[in-house]
Amino acid sequence: MAIVLGPNQYGKAENRLVTVSRNGSVHTIKDLTVSTSLRGDLADTHLTGDNAKVLATDTQKNTVYAFAKEAPVGEIEDFALRLGRHFVSSQEAITGARILIDAHAWERIDGHDHAFVHGSNEKRTTAVTIEGSQAWVVSGVRDLVVLKSTGSEFHGYPKDPYTTLKETNDRILATSVTARWRYAGVEVDWAKSFTEIRSIMLKTFADKHSLSLQQTLYAMGEAVLNARPEVAEVRLSMPNKHHFLVDLSAFGLQNDNEVFYAADRPYGLIEGSILRDDAPDAGLAWSTLPAF
Description:
Catalyzes the oxidation of uric acid to 5-hydroxyisourate, which is further processed to form (S)-allantoin. Keywords: Oxidoreductase, Purine metabolism. This is Uricase. Pathway: Purine metabolism; urate degradation; (S)-allantoin from urate: step 1/3. The protein is an alpha+beta fold. It has five helices and ten strands, in the order E-E-H-H-H-E-E-E-E-H-H-E-E-E-E. It has helices spanning about 45, 55-70, 75-90, 190-205, 215-225, and strands at about 10-25, 25-40, 95-110, 115-130, 135-150, 175-185, 230-240, 245, 260, 270-275. The strands form two sheets. Strands 1-2-3-4-5-6-7-10 form an eight-stranded antiparallel β-sheet. A two-stranded antiparallel ribbon has the order 8-9. The longest helix is centred in the last third of the chain and has 18 residues, at about 190-205. It is globular, with a radius of gyration of 23 Å. The two termini are about 35 Å apart.
C-alpha cells in the first residue's frame, strides 16, 4: 500500500480590510473580509518541510492591504481577480488561486458626508478561482433576510403516523437567502449585475404566490436566468424561518393569523440549483465552495 498526498491548498483566511476614499468632505467606505488560498507544486513542504515554494500566508495578507492602497478596490470581483492573477503570475510554484470576499453593508447617514450606519447583516460575496490563464467568478449574497406575511401556502404533503403539522392556506413565509450565481465570463458590469440580480430575487419572492419554499426557490433562480444573460447558473440555500400560530384558545381568544412565535431551530433547509441547459462548463468555479 502506498500513501500519497491528495489535493491541498493553503492561504490567509478572513483578512479584515476597511478602506476610506475621500472626495473632499464626502467619504466612501468599503468593509471587506478577504480570504486567499493558493495551490500548486507544494508537495515538498508537506513531505519534507522544505518551504522554498511556500509564499507565506503573512505575505498574502500584506498583499491584500498593499493592493488596496496601490489602486482603488473597486468592485469586489475586480479586486479578487487582481489578487488571484497576481499570486499565480508572480509565484512559479503556484498554479491556482481562490479568492473569497465578503462585502459588509454600510449606509451613509442622511445629511452626513462621512458618518455611516451598519445597514444589515446582509453580505455581498464573490469567489474568484484562477487556474493558469483561466478565471471563474461566482458572486452572490448571504444573510438576505426576507419575509412575506401572506401569499404562501403549504398542503398536499404525505401524512404518516408521525405527522403533526397542519396544512395551511395562509402562512408567513420567511427565509435567510444565501444565493450564489456563476457568471459565464468575466467581462461583466459587476455592480449593475449584482444590483439587478438582487432586485429580481426580491421581487420574485414578494410577487410569487408560494405553494412551497421549493417553488419559490426555483422561481427566483429562473427569473434571474431569464433576465440576466451573463449568468449561467444560480444556487440557492434557503432555511425556512418558521413562524407558528400561537394557540390562544385557553384565554378565550381567537387567533386569526395575527399572533405567531418565531422558532429559530430546528428549521427546514431548502437548497437547489437552476441552470441553463446550454450553460458553459463550470470548470473549477464551485471547487472548495459549499454545494449550495
